[in-house]
Design a protein that fits this description.
- By secondary structure, the protein is of the alpha+beta class.
- It has one domain: Immunoglobulin-like, CATH 2.60.40.
- It has 2 helices and 8 strands.
- The strands form 2 sheets. Strands 1-2-3-6 form a 4-stranded antiparallel beta sheet. Strands 5-4-7-8 form a 4-stranded antiparallel beta sheet, with no helix packed on it.
């Protein structure tokens, strides 16, 4: 009889130790990535990039949903120039008829979505920011542009020929 009591106790203890609660279930975290190449006229065919930066420059953007309804945005720049500072940001889309310089975007970067600077190292560099917008809203509703400025030229928000990358943000 003692043997049965011990077996019963061990069985109940084992079940309690190895059972899963709802808190233990891990759901997949929504993530997605986007690739951007040097601006050769994709956004404005009559105004491709016009600087001297190496033409094998690329950028990638990875978005990861956060539990607090924000989105982790990581941008990696490839084939950077060592020691040069890259300005990277989102610009909200706008009606060109209503902007001061006729641009189809608000010229001030949207720091709530993404606005960072990073120094190149001759290879790949990554910078990360938490966007205030949720993953689904950022990837389906946000209407904006992703811009990487040429570090070899003065930053201009109106001269698209100085943009290494310009394209739809998270599309």
């Amino acid at each position: 009889m003692n043997f049965l009591k011990v077996l019963f106790f061990m069985t109940i203890t084992s079940l309690g130790m190895f059972s899963c609660s709802d808190d233990d279930v891990t759901l997949p975290v929504p993530t997605t990535s986007f690739q951007y190449t040097l601006h050769t006229g994709q956004a404005v065919p009559t105004a491709p990039y016009g600087g001297t930066h190496n033409t094998d420059f690329t950028a990638s953007m990875n978005l990861t949903s956060e539990l607090d309804s924000t989105t982790l945005v990581s941008v990696t720049l490839n084939n950077t120039i060592d020691g040069e500072t890259y300005n990277i940001h989102a610009h909200d889309a706008a009606d060109a008829a209503t902007t001061a310089n006729g641009t189809p975007y608000t010229e001030a970067p949207n720091g709530e979505i993404f606005a960072q600077m990073v120094v190149g190292n001759g290879g790949s560099v990554t910078v990360t920011q938490v966007a205030s917008m949720g993953f689904t809203s950022l990837t389906t509703e946000y209407n904006g542009f992703f811009v990487v400025h040429d570090p070899l030229q003065d930053v201009s928000t109106t001269d698209i020929t100085t943009f290494l990358v310009v394209g739809a943000f998270a599309r």
